[in-house]
Design goal:
The protein is of the alpha/beta class. It contains 12 helices and 13 strands. Helix 3 runs parallel beside helix 6.
Length: 319
């Protein structure tokens, strides 16, 4: 029986990945600060208490011995609002743990290491003129996280950086991530939103891809997606009645950047800093931040009906 450990396995993505691995016959261990709530997983799922911010590398090596794969599905995302300077926070939560886990996995003889990152690191490579890592502390941390993990890759251990776009779906123990936007779209108020668009992946297909990577993946960076949507098309699917034509008032990039200036000042006065620069992030938000889905659909099907059904389920769960 193959064995693996998912650090952060009780989270949104981890929940679906753990269950997918069980279906494939894996012995799965969840690593985290506290044990998952009773009844959330099968009794077959093991638990290993650890704090990835402080656990020594030597202890991790012992934990990882005998595991076929290690997956890091924990960290800080761009919604975090830490004290200034934000990069110190993101380094501590994203880069430092990846360094310890990568070194420990190699020492333990692990064959497959998966680091769950962000598709912003893909765009950092694709659009060097935007200098995303320079301007956005969160994106810089994801870039450095990937570099640190890939540096220990070898013929004996594959290291895969999974660059994840916006994820849709709902876990039974968590509030839907998209609840505020769903409520806004279905409110009586006018919908103001920028032009542009984004790549999207369902959490079910992401879990399937992660299991495939744990078995077959080779060292590299992998942006994954089900489909690409304009923001208008994305918001359309967040309606209670997605067939109804949603009227969106588009906001030009310069208006969005102007609006973000007082937001930046407000955070600065509070001693806070966002993971993405509010003004410069509008260059991404108003862009068509799309991904090539060819590789993704070699792992899971190109099934728009399923994608829409996941949107529908998510919307129905939000009052």
């Amino acid at each position: 029986m193959k064995k693996g450990i998912i650090i952060g396995g009780a989270g949104f993505i981890g929940y679906f990945t753990v269950n997918r691995l069980l279906e494939e016959g894996y012995e799965v261990t969840i690593g985290g600060r506290k044990q998952p709530e009773a009844g959330l997983f099968s009794d077959k799922v093991l638990f290993q208490e650890m704090d990835i911010l402080t656990v020594p590398e030597e202890q991790l090596t012992e934990i990882f011995k005998g595991k076929d794969f290690v997956m890091l599905a924990a960290g800080a995302d761009d919604r975090s609002l830490p004290d200034r300077p934000a990069f110190d926070f993101f380094y501590r939560h994203n880069v430092a743990p990846a360094k310890r886990i990568s070194a420990a996995a190699k020492s333990a003889g692990v064959k497959q290491l998966l680091i769950l990152g962000s598709y912003f690191s893909y765009f950092e490579r694709k659009y060097p003129e935007l200098r995303l890592a320079e301007h956005h502390p969160y994106i810089r941390s994801r870039k450095l996280q990937a570099e640190a993990a890939l540096a220990v890759a070898s013929a004996e251990m594959n290291v895969m950086i999974i660059e994840i776009p916006y994820v849709v779906g709902i876990a039974p123990h968590l509030t839907p991530l998209w609840k505020p936007l769903i409520q806004y779209v279905n409110s009586p108020f006018p919908v103001f939103y920028p032009d542009g668009g984004t790549a999207v992946i369902t959490v079910q297909h992401l879990a399937k891809a992660l299991v495939w990577m744990a078995e077959n993946g080779k060292t590299g960076q992998y942006p994954l997606a089900d489909a690409n949507f304009s923001w208008k098309g994305f918001l359309q699917l967040l309606q209670k009645n997605p067939e109804k034509n949603l009227r969106i008032i588009p906001l030009p990039q310069w208006v969005l950047k102007l609006f973000m200036l007082p937001v930046m000042l407000y955070f600065r006065l509070r001693g806070k800093e966002t993971g993405v620069h509010p003004v410069m992030f509008m260059d991404i938000q108003t862009n068509k931040s799309y991904l090539d889905t060819t590789f993704s659909h070699s792992i899971f099907p190109d099934d728009m009906a399923f994608v829409k059904s996941v949107f529908k389920e998510m919307v129905e769960k939000c009052p």
